[in-house]
Amino acid sequence: MDTLFRLFSPQSSRDLSRNSSSSRSSEPRQIHHQHSFLHHNSFARQREVEFYREECGTEHHLYMDEDFSSSSSSKHFQNPHQPPSTTTTTTTTTPTPTPIFDPADLSLPQDLNLDFASPSSSSVGASGAGRRWSSQLLIECARAVAARDSHRVQQLMWMLNELSSPYGDTEQKLAACFLQGFFARLTSSGPRTLRTLSAASDRNCSFESTRRTALRFQEVSPWSSFGHVAANGAILEAFLDPSSASQRLHILDLSNTFCTQWPTLLEALATRSADDTPHLSITTVVWSASPSTAVQAVMREIGQRMEKFARLMGVPFRFNVVHHAGDLSDLDLDTLDLREGGSSALAVNCINALHGVSPADHRRETLIAAIRRLQPRIVTVVEEEADLEGGGGGGEEEGEAFFKVFKESLRFFSAYFESLEESFPRTSNERLALEREAGRSLVDLVACPAAESAERRDTAAGWSRRMRSAGFAPAAFSEDVADDVRALLRRYKEGWTMRAAAEESEDASAGIFLEWKEQPVVWASAWKP
Amino acid sequence: MGGEAISSTNPPPAKKKRSLPGTPDPEAEVIALSPKTLLATNRFLCEICGKGFQRDQNLQLHRRGHNLPWKLRQRTSKEPRKRVYVCPEKSCVHHHPSRALGDLTGIKKHFCRKHGEKKWKCDKCSKRYAVQSDCKAHSKTCGTREYRCDCGTVFSRRDSFITHRAFCDALAEESARVAASNMSRLTSIRNDNFNFTSDLIRSNIAHDFSGAISNTTMTEGEMIGHARRELSLWMGGGDHTENLSKRNDLFTEDLYGNPFTSQYPNQLSSIYSDEQTCIALPRSGMKETESPHPLLLSVPSRYSTQHHHQHQQMAMVPDVSATALLQKAALIGVNASCATPLSSFETNNSSLLDMNLSSLATLSGNTMDNSTLTNPLTAVYSTRHLMIQKDDERGGETRDFLGVDAPIICASSWNGWV
C-alpha cells in the first residue's frame, strides 16, 4: 500500500507512515510474498493467482492480494462493506475491527455520505448492506480524477481497494475492475497494462475454453443469442425471399462470437428448403490488436467443426477465416472473394464489430462505406448500447469528457455484471472469464486514448445515423423474427425484455433492443442498401 | 365461380378409400369457394332461425328442436354428385380443377395453412400455425422433447442443442470413424431427432462392430440415409417426441440398430428392421440384395453362414433345414408385403404397425402351407414373421429360431438402448 501512495504524492505517504503502527512495517513483506488466496481452492483460482502474478507489476499486488490488510476491515466474504471510517458513514453493519491505519487521519471528505443501508436493496444475503456503494465511490473517484484532485483520488482509491474484490459480489467486482482501470490511468500505463492482460488471456485461450465460455454464456443469458437470433432471422428472410432466391449464399461474418451464431442458421437452411438447399459460404473475419496464434488455432478448429456439422446437416458449405491484425477499417473487403464469380447473394453480419473500429479519422464511416460498396442484400448490425464514443478526438479524454464516458461505462458495465451475476450460478469459471474480459475492456476505456480504443461503443442512434448516411435503409424485423426473439427471451430467467426502437423521427434508430431490467443493453438491427 | 356452397347434403357417403391428395374423381362436381367462405366458421345455417353451426350434425340436432313436420324434416333428397373443391388462390397448385381436393375440411385447412395468416401461435416456442388444430397438436408435444447429444448431454432447448452439437467433440470423433462417403449421402435430413439418435446408434454400432462390419457400414450408411428420409415422411413432419425413453424412438433406434447387432434380435424390433429394409426398397433396387444381409447377420451364427450362402445362390436349397427355409421365407415375405404400407405413409406409427402385422399374418398364412421357394426371398421373410406372429400369439415356442437368448436379450437390449 505504501508503494501505491508513494507514487502519487510524497506528502500523503508521510502521513501514512506517521500513522502506521508497528505492524505496518510487516505489510510490505506481506504484500510481495503473500500470494495465496485462501478462500477458494478451485483450479480457476490457482490460475487466477498465476495470472495475476504474471501480469501484474508490483503495484498491482496491492489490491489483487486478498490477504492484504487482513487485519483491517475487509475480510471480503464476511464483512465486505465495512468502511474503515465510521465518521462519515451511516452504516448499520457490525462495528469494524480496529483498522491498522486510522483513516480519519486521512481526513476523508465529509461529504462522502455513503448510504450502506439503502432500502432499495433487493438483494439479500451476505451483502446485506446498501447496493450501490461502489457506484457512488467510483463516481466520486472519477470526479476527482477529472478534477485532478489527487488527494481525494488517493483517499477514494484506498477505500475502493479495501472494499473491492474480483471474487465478491457485483459491487465488489465492479469496484475491482474500475480500480484497475484507474490505476492504469494514473500511472499512465494503460496501453501497456492492456497488452499484458491480453497476452495473459491469450496464453490461456484454447478451443475448449472458448467453446465452453461462449456456449455456457449463451445458455444462461440472452446477451449474445439475442443478436444471433435476430440476425439469423433477418438473413434467412433476405436470402430465401422468393422474389430473389439464389442458390449460392455468402455471409461475411464480422463478429467476435466465434461462429456460435451459425449452427442454427445452417439447421434452418437445411430444414426449410429440404430438396434444394442452397450452397452457403461463410467468411469470418477475426480481428485483434496484435496477431494471436491461439485465436488462429481456435478458429481452425471451429472451421473444421462447422464443416463437419454442415455435412451432417446436408448443407453444401464452405468456410473461410481471415485473421486481421489492427483496425478493421484497414481490411480490404474486395480481396475476400465474396461474390464467388458474381452469382452469390451476400449478407454482412456485424456483431460487435463496428465498435472495435477506432472512432477517430472517420474510420467507422470508411468501414461502413466499404460494406456498402459490396452491395450486400442485407447487413445485420448488433451492438452493445452505450455512449462511449467520447469526443472522438485523438488523445486521452480529460476532465468533463472523461467523466461522461466514465459514467456511461459504469452504467453499462453495472448492467452487464449484474446480468452475469444473476444468470450464472454462484461459482462459474465461465463467468470469471467473461468478467476478466470486461475488466480488460474497462482498462481500455478508462486508461487508453479513444483513438486507439477498441471498446468505444456507440448508441443505436449513432450507428443508425452512420448507416443512413452511408446509404443504407433500415429493414424492420418481421413479425416472425420478433416472435422468435420473444420466445427466446422466455427461455431465460426473469429480467430480460425486448423493445422495438422508437421510430418517431427520421433520424431515429431502427431495430430492437434487448433490455435488462428496463435498461437497453444490446441493439440489433438490419439494413438494406 | 365463387358461390356459396349449399350446406345441405345427404349424410356423408360410405367411407371411401383415401386416394392420393389432389387427384380427384373425374366425374366429380368442382366447387370453387371464395376465400371468405373457406374461412367462415359457421357454414351450416338453420333455414328457420338462421343460426350458424360449424358442423352439419350440430345443425341437424338443432333443427330437431324446431319440431318440423315430416316433409320438411327430410333433407333435399337429390343425390349430390361427388364434390371436389379447388383452392381460390391462383398461384396454388390446387387451383386447377385437375388437382382439386375432395374434402371440404381438407380444402379449408389447406387454404388456411398455405395462404392464410398464421394466427395461432405456440406459446412455448414461437412456431406459428394457421389452423388451430395444428397449433393445439403441436403444443402438446412442444417442450416435452428432450434433445440428447452423442456426448450424453441432454438439452431441453433446441437451439442450444444444435449449437452444442455443432461444436461437440462427439461430432469430431464420429466423423473420424464413419467413412466420408456415408456422410455425403445424408442429404436433406428433415427430422433432427432421427438424425441425432441415429448418430448415437451409428457411433455405438461402429464402436462395437468396427472390425466385423467394415463392409456393411456402407449399407448401413445408405440404409440409414434412405430410411431416414422415408422415415421422416412416415413420421409426418416431426412433431413426435424425441425422448429416448418413449417407444417411438425406441423403435427407431432398434430400427437402425437391429440389423447390425446380433445381440439384440428381439422380435418387435425385427419387424421394424424388416420395415426398414422395406422402406428402403422403393428407393433403390439395390436394397433388395443388400438388406437381407444385415438381417441374416443378426441371425445367430449357426444359421448365418447357411443363410448367407443361400442368399447368394437361392436356387440351391437342398442342404438347408426346414427351419432355415421358413426363416428365409419370413424375411422375404415382409419384403413383398411392405409395398402396401408405402401408400399410407401419412398415417401414424401405430397404424403402420397394424398394417404390417396384418399383412404379415396373411403372408404367414400363405407360407405356412408351403414354402414358396419360387421367390426364395419371400419365403425367408414371411417365415420370419410367421415366427413373430406365432410368438405373439403363443409366446415361447419359436424363439429359438431367432436366437438363443432372444427374449432375454430383448429385454436387456431395450434397457441397453434406453
UniProtKB/TrEMBL annotation, chain A:
<keyword id="KW-0805">Transcription regulation</keyword>
<keyword id="KW-0804">Transcription</keyword>
<feature type="compositionally biased region" description="Low complexity">
    <location>
        <begin position="84"/>
        <end position="95"/>
    </location>
</feature>
<feature type="short sequence motif" description="VHIID">
    <location>
        <begin position="249"/>
        <end position="253"/>
    </location>
</feature>
<dbReference type="InterPro" id="IPR005202">
    <property type="entry name" value="TF_GRAS"/>
</dbReference>
<feature type="region of interest" description="SAW">
    <location>
        <begin position="447"/>
        <end position="528"/>
    </location>
</feature>
<feature type="region of interest" description="Disordered">
    <location>
        <begin position="67"/>
        <end position="104"/>
    </location>
</feature>
<protein>
    <recommendedName>
        <fullName>SHORT-ROOT protein</fullName>
    </recommendedName>
</protein>
<feature type="region of interest" description="Disordered">
    <location>
        <begin position="1"/>
        <end position="39"/>
    </location>
</feature>
<dbReference type="Pfam" id="PF03514">
    <property type="entry name" value="GRAS"/>
</dbReference>
<comment type="similarity">
    <text>Belongs to the GRAS family.</text>
</comment>
<feature type="compositionally biased region" description="Low complexity">
    <location>
        <begin position="9"/>
        <end position="25"/>
    </location>
</feature>
Automatic annotation (TrEMBL), chain B:
<dbReference type="InterPro" id="IPR055186">
    <property type="entry name" value="C2H2-2nd_BIRD-IDD"/>
</dbReference>
<dbReference type="InterPro" id="IPR013087">
    <property type="entry name" value="Znf_C2H2_type"/>
</dbReference>
<protein>
    <recommendedName>
        <fullName>Protein EARLY HEADING DATE 2</fullName>
    </recommendedName>
</protein>
<keyword id="KW-0804">Transcription</keyword>
<dbReference type="GO" id="GO:0005634">
    <property type="term" value="C:nucleus"/>
</dbReference>
<keyword id="KW-0479">Metal-binding</keyword>
<dbReference type="GO" id="GO:0008270">
    <property type="term" value="F:zinc ion binding"/>
</dbReference>
<keyword id="KW-0677">Repeat</keyword>
<dbReference type="Pfam" id="PF22996">
    <property type="entry name" value="C2H2-2nd_BIRD-IDD"/>
</dbReference>
<dbReference type="Pfam" id="PF22995">
    <property type="entry name" value="C2CH-3rd_BIRD-IDD"/>
</dbReference>
<keyword id="KW-0805">Transcription regulation</keyword>
<feature type="domain" description="C2H2-type">
    <location>
        <begin position="44"/>
        <end position="66"/>
    </location>
</feature>
<comment type="function">
    <text>Transcription activator that acts as a flowering master switch in both long and short days, independently of the circadian clock. Promotes flowering upstream of HD1 by up-regulating FTL1, FTL4, FTL5, FTL6, EHD1, HD3A and RFT1. Seems to repress FTL11 expression. May recognize the consensus motif 5'-TTTGTCGTAAT-3' in target gene promoters.</text>
</comment>
<dbReference type="InterPro" id="IPR055185">
    <property type="entry name" value="C2CH-4th_BIRD-IDD"/>
</dbReference>
<feature type="region of interest" description="Disordered">
    <location>
        <begin position="1"/>
        <end position="27"/>
    </location>
</feature>
<dbReference type="GO" id="GO:0003700">
    <property type="term" value="F:DNA-binding transcription factor activity"/>
</dbReference>
<dbReference type="InterPro" id="IPR031140">
    <property type="entry name" value="IDD1-16"/>
</dbReference>
<dbReference type="Pfam" id="PF22992">
    <property type="entry name" value="C2CH-4th_BIRD-IDD"/>
</dbReference>
<keyword id="KW-0862">Zinc</keyword>
<dbReference type="InterPro" id="IPR036236">
    <property type="entry name" value="Znf_C2H2_sf"/>
</dbReference>
<keyword id="KW-0863">Zinc-finger</keyword>
<dbReference type="InterPro" id="IPR055187">
    <property type="entry name" value="C2CH-3rd_BIRD-IDD"/>
</dbReference>
